[in-house]
Design goal:
By secondary structure, the protein is α/β, with parallel strands linked by helices. Helices cover 38% and strands 18% of the residues.
Length: 537
């Protein structure tokens, strides 16, 4: 008889013997299972019994056992009852072990692989990296999930024929990845075009609870906000939640040696463009003079009215044209004074070297109003300060809505090389606003003041603007209002009597634009300010 037939016969005999043994010992296994249930129940009851009641419980149990022992045939009846209850309790067979839970990483990565397949699969590829019956392990080389089971890092490959140099193709892949990995976070996409690899990293949220304060910066350095640790090689101490911590800032350097002397801020409505303008004003006030134009007329900058160092805060078209016309004349005067001092070899006068800042909030609103009334566009008056502001120590900051970027003049767009975008902007909008493609996918819901900044030819970095709210807003939190009030160059009108600072004496007269208006010269100073500050309650 062949050897394998002997083995088969032996296995059959062993299987039959095992089946008979299981049938024979089935009652014993049922009773044993029931006894284990009884023991577990007794342990649980004993653990649940308070310590002060365990003594009486033991006494009653011992009395019952003695009573059973003294009864005629008591032990036999007790044994029969115990076996019957054990057989009843053990009649349910042992539950089969639950199947292991699927690996979260495998499930999510498989879903992401399937979502990317239609965009990365070539119909003529003989050995496709992405195909509908493939595995994500062939395309994904490394991945990492956080404690909440969300994708934190992914290293993936893509075919060489994928058009990774086209922004549209990149944006399509980034949108798919963000949709599968979660839209509540920001992701950085590092495209390695040489090796056809894409590295995806989920970015940690930036601190949004840093209030306005005096930052450690040199004169001419403006802290626009804070970014990631790899976005800058510098950290500064800031007060956060009552403690001093080190945060990496986004520093914009101004002055005659700056390569980006002017700033353009674009943002979605309600995401803090006016707050950034207030933050810049509070940082520049200790060493510069300010001219503020509020084109929206909402009174966001009324807290700066009649403050030392603030020449004027204008909200009307007439006042804005007068203030900007004066700024043009002041720029020419500064250039002439500096050139004369340079030719004479003497020190320039102090009034020509003290920085002058022109802050314009929503100037496109005034541009439309001027076009409707047939008057000069306020943005056209910025050409001389923008082109010669670095030599004349004049800095221009323009803030407007992201939807109004097409209404901003070409001169403003060409001369403002420091750019900030606030709010969730799409890839095309961010590219147009920053002048460079954004390698970070914004979150669907961003906090106020969250955006991106690009200084000159540098790479765009994330930005969180410090909370610089309007101190005249009664609905704002009191600690944030107090932080802004502490930076204003005036006494706190809530605790002290209001003191009106001295206004500039004899401001220059604005020449009339036409003969009809020559009889009524326009002056920059006003008997009564158009925006009157009120006590802050």
């Amino acid at each position: 008889m062949p050897l394998h037939r002997n083995f088969s016969k032996g296995r059959a005999i062993a299987r039959t013997a095992g089946d008979h043994a299981s049938d024979m010992f089935a009652p014993l296994s049922v009773i044993g299972r029931g006894l284990r249930h009884h023991v577990d129940w007794a342990k649980a009851r004993w653990q649940d019994t308070p310590k002060d009641r365990r003594g009486p419980t033991l006494f009653l149990t011992a009395a019952m056992l003695i009573g059973v022992y003294l009864l005629p045939h008591g032990l036999l009846f007790a044994l029969i009852a115990l076996m019957a209850s054990a057989a009843w309790a053990g009649r349910t067979p042992k539950a089969a072990p639950a199947p292991p839970a699927p690996n979260v990483a495998d499930v999510k990565l498989a879903a992401l692989y399937a979502a990317l397949t239609p965009y990365l699969c070539g119909p003529e590829d003989a050995n496709p990296l992405y195909h509908f019956a493939g595995s994500h392990k062939n395309a994904f080389s490394a991945w990492e999930f956080d404690g909440e089971g969300r994708l934190a890092r992914l290293d993936m490959s893509y075919p060489a024929y994928f058009t990774d140099t086209e922004p549209t193709a990149r944006a399509r892949i980034e949108q798919v990845v963000q949709g599968k990995a979660g839209r509540a976070r920001e992701y950085r996409f590092d495209w390695d075009e040489e090796s056809n690899r894409l590295r995806i990293t989920a970015l940690a949220p930036l601190p949004a609870d840093i209030a306005a304060q005096r930052f450690v910066a040199a004169p001419g350095e403006i802290v626009l906000g804070f970014t990631d640790e790899d976005g800058t090689a510098r950290t500064i101490p800031v007060i956060r939640r009552g403690a001093t911590v080190q945060q990496p800032p986004v520093v914009w350097r101004t002055g005659p040696r700056s390569s980006e002397p002017h700033l353009l801020v674009l943002g979605v409505t309600g995401y803090g463009t006016s707050s950034l303008l207030r933050s810049v004003a509070l940082q520049a006030l200790p060493y510069a003079d300010l001219v503020v134009v509020d084109g929206a007329g909402t009174g966001e900058h009324a807290c700066l009215v009649n403050r030392p160092g603030v020449h004027t805060v204008e909200t009307s078209l007439h006042g804005a044209l007068a203030a900007l016309d004066w700024a043009v004349g002041e720029t020419e005067r500064r250039l002439a004074a500096l050139n004369a001092a340079r030719h004479a070899g003497s020190a320039p006068p102090e009034d020509a070297t003290r920085p002058l800042w022109l802050l314009l909030d929503h100037p496109t609103e005034l541009s439309e109003l001027a076009r409707a009334e047939g008057r000069p566009d306020p943005q056209d008056l910025l050409e001389l300060p923008l082109r010669h502001g670095r030599a004349a120590r004049v800095t221009v900051v323009v803030a407007d809505d992201l939807d109004a970027r097409d209404r901003i003049t070409a001169t403003v767009r060409a001369t403002t090389r420091a750019r900030v975008v606030l709010g969730p902007a799409g890839p095309d909008e961010a590219h147009d606003a920053l002048g460079a493609p954004l390698d970070i996918a914004p979150a669907a819901h961003a906090p106020i003041g969250r955006g991106y900044a690009r200084i000159g030819n540098g790479a765009p970095v994330r930005l969180q603007v410090p909370a610089t709210i309007d101190p005249l807003d009664d609905e704002a939190p009191a600690p944030l209002r107090d932080a802004v009030i502490a930076l204003l160059p005036h006494r706190d009108t809530r605790t002290e009597a209001a003191a009106v600072p001295p206004r500039p004496e004899h401001p220059p007269t604005v020449p009339a634009a036409d003969p009809a208006a020559a009889a009524h010269p326009v002056e920059l100073a006003k008997g009564e300010p158009m925006i009157r500050s009120r006590p802050i309650s």
